[in-house]
Each structure stands twice: as C-alpha cells, then as structure tokens.
C-alpha cells in the first residue's frame, strides 16, 4: 500500500468524499453563510480555495493511499478565515497560520495519516519562510456541548501530533505548534535516517582481480 502527501488542488477537492467538502464554516462569515443556498456550497468552497491559492499560495495538503484521497488538511492566514472570529479564544497570533480543517476517511483512521498531513503542512510552511507557527482551535469533545458544531479539530488529536495548549479554554482551547520545533524534528529524523542507511550500507568489497598495491621501489646499486 502506497501513501504520500501532495498539494491540494481543485481536481483533488472534487475527489474528496468528506462532510467538510461543502462546509463553509471557516470560509464565510455567519451572516453571509446563512444566505448561501446549500446547492451552491461546493462552488463557494472552490472559489475560496482558488482565491487563497491566488493571493497567498497553497492552502492544503491531501494524503493519498494507493493514489486515492484518504484525508486532507486546509490552512491559511486568519485574514482569509472570517469564520474563526466566532471562537472565544480568537484571534490567533499574528506570526501564525491557522489550521482550519483536518479530516481522515474513517476507513483509514489509526494509520498515522493525520500525522502525515500535519508534517506535510509544516514542511510547506517552513520552506516559505516568515511564518513562526501553526495554530488551531481544539474541539474538546461532547463535554463542551459544542462537539462538531464549530468544525474544529479534536483537541486530543492536536496534542498527539505535536501542538501545545497556547490559550486554555473549557470549550475552545487554542493550540500552537512552533515551526522551529518542526525544523529540529525534521533535521533529527534526516540525521537518524542517514545513520541507519550508513549502518546497513554494505562495505565495498575489494576487487580480487585488481593488482596488489605496490610498495616503494628501491633502486639497486
């Protein structure tokens, strides 16, 4: 089974089978959202992604399993995400990008695909430069009586993949992942891989047909 993370495109968006596919919670403010016909939601989502990609750049990652989309993550500067203003712990820090949506197909949960998406997002933002962190609002579960109502990522998932609580709250805590931490993690992983490869890389066997090295030649008298 092959697994890889690629950039979100409108073509891949069309292939996603997820409840978030037509959701406009993050992309549109509440007043305008109520005025949008549900039949137009998919087109509105595509228009939003097109705008962000045009004005800011890539805003999502998709994880493919055997070349089929199995999950995705969407992220953008808060200026593109008017829906985030409804959170009591808003706004996010000015040096951060907001992770809005993370979804993995239930058939593929528990296989590390969510972590792959977060790592792919971090790599993208690291290479851009000028971004210090990723922040996200956490859904603390049914105890908050808001479970799923705000389309936030589960707080437990965020903590599991490397986010730390940045602003506590009983129903909508805000989490943060420093990109410099992700840089160190990447460097450590690459160094570990290189050590492993060096340990298993076979030594070059001597060529039995090669002539033996000659010692120094002494001239006779």
Task: Give structural notes.
The chain has 221 residues and is α+β, with helices and mostly antiparallel strands. The chain has helices at 10-15, 30-35, 41-55, 113-128, 155-160, 179-200; strands at residues 3-7, 60-65, 68-76, 96-104, 133-139, 153-154, 164-167, 174-178. It is built from six helices and eight strands. α4 crosses α6 (179-200).
SSE map:
Elements: E1 3-7, H1 10-15, H2 30-35, H3 41-55, E2 60-65, E3 68-76, E4 96-104, H4 113-128, E5 133-139, E6 153-154, H5 155-160, E7 164-167, E8 174-178, H6 179-200
Parallel strand pairs: 4-5, 5-6
Antiparallel strand pairs: 1-2, 2-3, 3-4, 5-8, 7-8
Task: Offer a few descriptive terms.
221 residues, alpha+beta, Aminopeptidase, 8-stranded mixed beta sheet, 6 helices, 8 strands, globular
Number of self-contained structural domains: 1
Helical percent range?
Answer: 25-40%
Global morphology: globular
Poorly predicted sequence stretches spanning 5 or more consecutive residues: 188-197, 216-221
Query: In the CATH hierarchy, what is the class?
Result: Alpha Beta
Number of helices: 6
Q: What average pLDDT do the residues reach?
A: 83
Q: How many distinct beta strands?
A: 8
Going by helix content, strand content and strand pairing, the class is alpha+beta
What distance separates the N and C termini? 74 Å
C-alpha-based Rg, rounded: 24 Å
CATH topology: the name is Aminopeptidase
Beta-strand percent range = 15-25%
Largest sheet: 8 strands, mixed
What is the CATH homologous superfamily assignment? Gcn5-related N-acetyltransferase (GNAT)
Report the order of strands and helices.
EHHHEEEHEEHEEH
CATH architecture: 3-Layer(aba) Sandwich
């Amino acid at each position: 089974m092959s697994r890889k993370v690629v950039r979100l495109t409108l073509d891949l968006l069309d292939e996603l089978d997820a409840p978030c596919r037509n959701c406009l919670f993050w992309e549109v403010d509440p007043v305008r959202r109520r005025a949008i016909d549900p039949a137009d939601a998919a087109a509105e989502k595509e228009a939003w992604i097109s705008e962000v990609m045009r004005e800011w750049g890539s805003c999502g990652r998709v994880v493919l399993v055997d070349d089929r989309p199995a999950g995705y993550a969407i992220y953008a500067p808060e200026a593109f995400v008017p829906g985030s203003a409804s959170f009591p712990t808003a706004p996010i820090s000015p040096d951060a990008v907001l992770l809005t949506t993370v979804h993995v197909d239930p058939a593929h949960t528990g296989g590390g695909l969510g972590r792959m998406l977060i790592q792919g997002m971090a790599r993208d933002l690291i290479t851009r430069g000028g971004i210090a962190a990723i922040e996200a609002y956490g859904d603390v579960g049914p105890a908050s009586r808001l479970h799923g109502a705000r389309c936030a990522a589960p707080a437990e998932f965020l903590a599991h993949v490397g986010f730390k609580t940045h602003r506590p709250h009983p129903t909508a805590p805000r989490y943060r992942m420093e990109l410099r931490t992700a840089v160190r993690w990447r460097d450590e992983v690459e160094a570990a891989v290189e050590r492993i490869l060096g340990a298993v890389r076979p030594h070059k066997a001597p060529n039995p047909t090669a002539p033996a090295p000659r010692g120094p030649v002494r001239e006779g008298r």
